[in-house]
């Protein structure tokens, strides 16, 4: 996910301007490896979109109604946040509805930040407005 500004630790809102595919990211049942989103931006964004900043990512859960982040998700998000020097990382999980499946997807927003000294990652639900 891309925004006009980087997610800030002190801010309580962010407008996502663009959501793309995952580039060269890979995932397995117990692991996630996030590719280099900046490479994706340089290779596939038109020149007028190259000012956008990495804000986070989105992915699907195939279990109907699954809106809770997994431990693997949280670790991948905090690792990506640290890798790219972000103060906060935003994430979205999309899953099929319990009734109606993918015709009525459920969206679940999350954010990761660091807290304390020494700091530790905190993954918490975020408010999603559409």
Task: List key phrases describing it.
130 residues; alpha+beta; 4-stranded mixed sheet; 3-stranded antiparallel sheet; 2 helices; 16% helix
Oligomer: single chain
The pLDDT mean sits at 83
Strand order of the largest sheet: 6-7-8-9
| Rg, Å, rounded | 15 Å
- What structural class results from the helix and strand content? alpha+beta
The major sheet is characterized as: 4 strands, mixed
The separation of the N and C termini measures: 15 Å
Instruction: Tell me the count of domains.
Output: 1
Number of strands: 9
Write the element-wise H/E pattern from the N-terminal end onward: EEEEHEEHEEE
* Tally of separate helices: 2
Which stretches of 5+ consecutive residues score pLDDT under 50?
Answer: none
Approximate strand percentage: 35-45%
- The coarse overall form would be globular
Helix fraction, binned, reads 10-25%
